[in-house]
Amino acid sequence: CNHSCTFCSCPWFAPDSNFKELPELSVKQWKRIITRIVEAGVDRIAFTGGEPLLKEGYRELVAHAAGTRVRDQNNRAPALYLLSNGRLMSSSVLQMCKEYGVALSMSLPGLNTFHEHTRAGQAKDILKWFGEAHNLGVRTTAGITVTKQNLGELYETMGEALLAGADQILLNRFLPGGRGLMFERKLALGRQEIQE
Q1: Is residue 8 within 8 Å of 176, Cβ to Cβ?
Q2: Residue 78 in contact with residue 70, Cβ under 8 Å?
Q3: In angstroms, rounded to a whole number, what is the distance separating the alpha carbons of residues 120 and 5?
Q4: What is the mean pLDDT of the segment spanning 119-133?
Q5: Helices (H), ranges, 41-190
Q6: What pLDDT is attached to residue 22?
């Protein structure tokens, strides 16, 4: 991933983790897996990470997935989703989403607190891409991990995402895991904050 989010729950980033990172599968291996699971009836595929736009050959994988068919009475392509932090977003990625009907989700963990949460980028850049996606007709979701740090601007964050063009908001409460274990006191919501 090209972010170092304080709320990240990936197990290999936990303090004292013994979770073994294995080599990434090749595009050829992923294509075989995608074909196999779709033929077995999987009708939704989400490309996620880390950051899926860092995967060499991701466009080829998306095109391949869009060309597969679920073996059912409709013989349709699976629904495709791309979950990105948005840092590598580009017009060509949005065009790919439009071409293959990929629903796009981008992380927006705050406005003023964005950089504190991600240690990279700015909220205004992500908001710009929500607008560009909207103009192209690409369906989008703003993924917001709610923390003690961004709770005070949650209403504004949701509002800015929707005003920029996001179609949906997905709220996730920070749950300590991975790197997030190091920031639990700073980020974890208490009972009162959860109710708020």
Answers
A1: no
A2: yes
A3: 8
A4: 97
A5: 58-67, 91-100, 114-118, 123-136, 154-164, 184-187
A6: 87
